[in-house]
Amino acid sequence: MQIQGQAALVTGAASGLGEATARELARLGAKVAVLDVNIALAEKVAAEIGGIACQCDITSADSVTAAIDKAAAAHGPARILMNVAGIGGAKRVVQKDGSAAPLDAFSKVIAVNLIGSYNMTRLFAAACAKLDALEDGARGVILFTASVAAFDGQVGQQAYSASKGGLVGMTLPMARDLAQYGIRVCTVAPGLFATPLMKELPEAVQASLAASIPFPSRLGKPSEFAELAAHIVTNGHLNGEVIRLDGALRMAPR
User: Fold this and answer.
1) If you placed Cys at 7, which of 14, 75, 146, 186 could pair as Cys (CB 3.0 to 4.6 Å)?
2) Domain containing residue 27: CATH number
3) What is the pTM of this model?
4) Which of 124, 144, 160, 193 is catalytic?
């Protein structure tokens, strides 16, 4: 699918990997809707790329529907969905005081990263499936953002790894499910990237993390994630695939 002229939805697009993806799609000629819970930052990014900002809580069906409708009114129906929104968090199963990890902390990460991404996708897909087919019967492209933690999560990452592992496990059946409508589904599993959250760490810690990456021994650039996301849109034979983007990194237990 060609990106030029297509309407795209990017969740978590006010910062980090989502922002980089929104900027890259806009650079390639897409009409981009910047979806984020932080509407102030979303409006700033949207203004800079000529897009539209939509406040969106991906865990809420009403919020997602309102964002999709607002974006469609401005740009027409979207054929591209980039699910980049997500949260982190780490809790050991048994806490230092001997108590069990709080269940609500686990549930929140699953609710946002896994259920929220599915919620966004199901509502997008229902609308996209009704669109006229393009070349090769294509109607749309969906991207999930997992993590290398889906495969080699570290101590305390039970919730995060489970949520990202759920996205990995959902990729192929989702692609098979939506194949009849000409909607492709792929997932990118990034490693250690130079996001705003990462840059909050001391420089020595960032350097240590970068040194753990075989090659290149540096943190990933958000632009590299965005370039891969855009390539998935344009490469019509990429479907049902999970791609690690990590410089051959395999995470240690801690």
Assistant:
1) 75
2) 3.40.50.720
3) 0.96
4) 160
